[in-house]
Amino acid sequence: MLFQSTATTLLLFTNLISASAFTPHHVPLKASPVTTTSLFKKKASGKKKTSSGGKGFGAAVKQINKEDSFPYAGTIRPGVQSPQKVVIDESIMKPDYAIDGRPKGKSGLLPWIIEVKTPEEIVKMKASGRVAREVLDIAGAAIKPGITTDEIDNIVHEETLKRGAYPSPLNYHGFPKSCCTSINEVICHGIPDSRPLEEGDIINLDITCYLNGYHGDCSEMFVVGEADPKAKELLQTTYDCWVKAMEFVEPGKDYKDIGAIIEDHVVERGFTTVKNFCGHGIGSTFHTNPNIFHYRNNEPNGKMAPGHTFTIEPMICEGLSQCLNWPDDWTATTIDGKRTAQFEHTLLITAEGVEALTGKIETSPLQFWEKESEVHKGFWLGTTPAAREKAAELTAKKLE
User: Fold this and answer.
1) How confident is the prediction for the chain on average, in pLDDT?
2) Number of domains in the chain
3) 287 in a labelled binding site
């Protein structure tokens, strides 16, 4: 799950200190007249709301009036939201925001101060990552024409609880559902509702599970029925730039260099990369350092080291990459209504490379973008020898 980019490099130190308690961590952008107040999106006026920086994954959700005259960019419209769920099972450990919606976790004061996980913490993160993967696969298998995103959310909620975990998005800064479902032109943070999926839709499911005090975060694309050629190209490009970026990860490298790898790959193929949102550190806190920008940048976000856990989650667009923020204060779409795609893993850096803590498992499907990748064919589980061996084994079984 993403965090939205805001603020300026010039104001970095001031903004880090003054950032509101409602923001899980603060993200600098290229120099622009944006300040920390931009973290909270203003209500819709008669014009499209766009931003080169806006609110983070925060602020209370408001129900959209379906008769509102808001100028939506594409064909997706908000449906009816079912009542927000509450997890009452006392045996399930809940994050600190589960009741009041306010996360209490802190990031390092400076963006290059990054938590190093202990061996015990890594064991817990592997467990939460495994749960997130299982839930994502089960929810993804239910995708078909006619199912609503609210029904998908119900699956995510119940499957998460079955595994003794809490669905991390639920009530995070007031978010009303247990996952994000982003269809076609929706870049991220789509709220599950009554809209049935239609033949040809592409949808991103963003799943995060909180188990034993740690979050595991992943997202993946799914096609409803058959994808048209342009959608296939978008999905393939998004997947390949993502894998190429993850292949780059190893101790000693700069986090800032991830962005150029992604941007160069997609621009060569006629696509664009969203700059409003970024990947993030993750652990006992949902969003923390480092910030992972998916475009060329020179931000001082530190060097990679064993024990770091974070996400890479590029959002790639068919057309313009600017965002249009809906009146619900969550949903972000492309400004031109063209489609967008995204993939995400929670990653762990080790002395030998990087591992996907939310990597695919024995029961996971092998998708066309994995079979046809020009970067890495088959499942991608990391760059360590053990991850390479396991990925080759799982892929071979799927191709038998």
Assistant:
1) 87
2) 1
3) yes
